[in-house]
Amino acid sequence: MTRITRAALSLAGLASIAALAVGCAGTPAGTGPTSSSAPEQSTAPAPAPGGDDDFDAAWLDDGRMFAVVTMGSSTCIPQVDEVTASGQQVTVSLVDIDADAVCTADLAPRASVGAFPEGIDPTEDVELVVTYDGVTDDADLDGDPELAGIPGTSTEYTPSAGWFDDESLVLLSWGSSSCPPIVESVAGSGATGTVAFAADEEGKQCTMDMAPRATIVAFPDDAVEDDGFQLTLVGANLDTTIPVRG
Length: 246
Known about the structure:
- The protein is mainly beta.
- It has one domain (2-31, 51-245).
- The chain is 0% helix and 40% strand.
- The strands form 3 sheets. The chain has a 7-stranded mixed beta sheet, with no helix packed on it. A 5-stranded mixed beta sheet has the order 1-4-5-7-8, with no helix packed on it.
- Strand 14 (230-234) and strand 15 form a beta hairpin.
- The radius of gyration is 17 Å and the shape is globular.
- The protein starts with a strand and ends with a strand.
- The relative contact order is 0.23.
């Protein structure tokens, strides 16, 4: 069995990356994924997952990484605590970092990002067994022959995206954990889509870390097709077009 703990997990080499120095402040930050939403805060606790399909999952980083999607407060995102693997079955535990945190009272999809252990083959099906807040359920990922990343190797720190349902995807980007990209608009039709990000707030200070930032992107029902989908990113220093896997 292969095991990765949160303390040991480098998220594919975060510890070795030099700190970003341009446009950022010197405050350190954690390596957990950050959210792009910023609704009004409330003292209400984050709702627990519920329903028949408690967890969804998406391929990220060319198969080196994954996202687990849960429902709850958009400002209190659980983090991946421990990952273990036996064959193509991967067991993932999620934790709330601060049980006393003040969270928004919304109910939104939010993505927790982790790295696959060495030995997982992303071209073959993977069964994720996820535990969070007393709930354990499966979130399966279909193998994709176009995923060329090797779990356990270093990330290339480039944007990537994966579907977790027919119209919604997780976008992974890299940069300051305190300044995640904020979605301004989403458009899509057929096998192409565009996400535009809001301009940085003037004078905003950013931490100098290089962290994974998970952003949920949702298209209108039946507007797009997931086969061969290409996503264009505009703004937030993410200007590029990437394939969406899954």
